[in-house]
Amino acid sequence: MQINPPYLMFLGDVPDKLAAKTAYGIVDWRRDWCLGQVRLPGCKADLGIPDMSVKDAAAKGAKTLVVGIVNAGGVLNEAWIPTIIEALESGMDVASGLHIRLGTDERIATAAQKHGRALHDVRMSDQRFATGKGTKRPGLRLLTVGTDCSVGKKYTVLAMEKAMRDRGLDADFRATGQTGVFISGRGVAIDAVVADFISGAVEWISPAGSPGHWDLVEGQGSLFHPSFSGVTMGLLHGAQPDAFVVCHEPTRTTMRGVQHPLPTIQEVIDLTIQCGKLTNPAIKPVGISVNTQALGEEEAKTYLAGLEKEHGLPATDPIRFGVEGIVDRVLADFPATKTA
After folding, report:
1. What positions does the domain D-glutamate N-acetyltransferase-like C-terminal occupy (predicted)?
2. Residues 311 and 164 reside in one and the same domain
3. Could you tell me the pLDDT band of residue 248, with boundaries at 50, 70 and 90?
């Protein structure tokens, strides 16, 4: 799958920033690929890049309209279809991370065929996966786990990849969600894999590596989330992580989209170890990553210091304060880590 930049980011009529997290992730990590954004009336998200029409974006050289929306069930909204068709008619390809294939809508399929444009369904992989085997394989792996969905699991491993590479360490980001695939160019949207093959798909994403090499595996969902825990468990068993980082958003009281209360960080640590031991008995936590954007800077520092004292682990906001403390802990706990 070759998705060609520059991108025109399509936000549709999303009700909040989290509903456009795919678009935000791409802009945050591949800003130079993003030419502008197109929004429908009622859209409550703004990527901070130029608003432009499909026609103007095409004239400026946009190659792909990216549907940067994450909604419940990953459905294709009827209100978005005219914009998608206009992009195809204007000479753009269209790429989507939705659960629904773009081509299942006859109008979109017809427009793509008529104008010779490609439809990229990033969640849908043509790769066939085996069932997971659970046999420990060479190399080192770190997985991000969460107290909830959308708490910074992807951002944490991307920040760690950058920090580790800046130190000359041998580390690679492994994408397990549609946004990560857009950013890295490789990976599998694990939540679109048939349940029996989730752990096998993760074993494929992160195959046997050289000793001391780190695969930094993007986490999904939460073991405590009643909607998505099945995906999280398969990911945990397939990743066989040597280390994990707990990701958290401190202002939530219930998990996103449901009424269940948020688990504590300690509960996540304990259950991750208990379940992770099935495929890696040596699994251990190495840090806590917190999205502190709702807190003032001093309030955030005080909160993080309290977490460090309570759990005996480095705690940070990877975007605000960096991940150097967690990288230091990884190096202390895993001296076999090698340079690139």
Report:
1. 129-327
2. yes
3. very high
